[in-house]
Design brief:
Blueprint (H helix, E strand, L loop, with lengths): L1 E5 L5 H8 L5 E5 L5 H6 L2 E4 L10 H10 L4 E5 L1 H9 L4 E17 L11 E12 L9 E6 L5 E6 L4 E4 L11 H9 L2
Parallel strand pairs: 1-2, 1-3, 3-4, 4-9
Antiparallel strand pairs: 5-6, 5-7, 7-8, 8-9
Length: about 180
């Protein structure tokens, strides 16, 4: 089972529908976690949401408790939440990317995706990771071709994966393939 933590984003149920193509999905508000369902889940997804990851201390605590115990996937705010919990700085971008399609490239040979592969993805964010970002077992694996901003992070040891973009968006070509690959990693 996949357990999705809803950060009250309009995209959350698009994420639920996408993940339901691969397994049973349960979804609860970040302030109302069902511990029994959380224990049963093999994968926990941190949904997109408004604001900054520092505004979600309960999700930070949950992430720290689950790290290394469950597969964790973060999307947009969830991606930023993972990086924030790993002492990354999340900052405003010069340009806001809401409803914007970008080409991104796999830049790291440690990725579960083939190095050099290019994807078209839908972006909906005004924040980004401030670099450099050097944390044990974490690799930035995809970057925006236009801005060089980090678009994915992977920790294949602890099974933690983050997408700055929205794989469930109609602007993301082959989003289901990306999710399938992460779920099978």
């Amino acid at each position: 089972m996949i357990y999705i933590i809803d950060h009250k984003d309009s995209f959350t149920y698009n994420v639920v529908h996408q993940f339901a193509k691969f397994d049973e999905v349960k979804c609860d508000d970040y302030n109302d976690i069902n511990i029994d369902l959380l224990k049963k889940a093999h994968t926990v997804v941190l949904s997109p949401g408004p604001g900054n990851p520092k505004n979600y201390p309960s999700t930070s605590k949950l992430y720290k408790n689950l790290k290394g115990k469950k597969k964790i996937i973060g999307i947009c705010l969830g991606f930023q939440q993972i990086l924030f919990c790993e002492k990354g700085d999340i900052i405003e971008q010069n340009k806001i990317y809401h409803g914007y399609q970008s080409k991104i490239t796999v830049v790291n040979s440690n990725s579960i995706f083939k190095k050099g592969s290019v994807y078209k993805v839908g972006r909906y964010h005004s924040l980004k990771l401030k670099e450099p970002f050097k944390v044990k077992n974490f690799e930035i694996t995809m970057r925006c071709n236009e801005t060089n901003v980090a678009m994915t992070v992977e920790n294949n040891i602890d099974k933690i994966y983050g997408f700055q973009f929205h794989p469930e968006s109609f602007l993301t070509i082959n989003g289901n393939l990306l999710i399938k690959k992460i779920l099978s990693a």
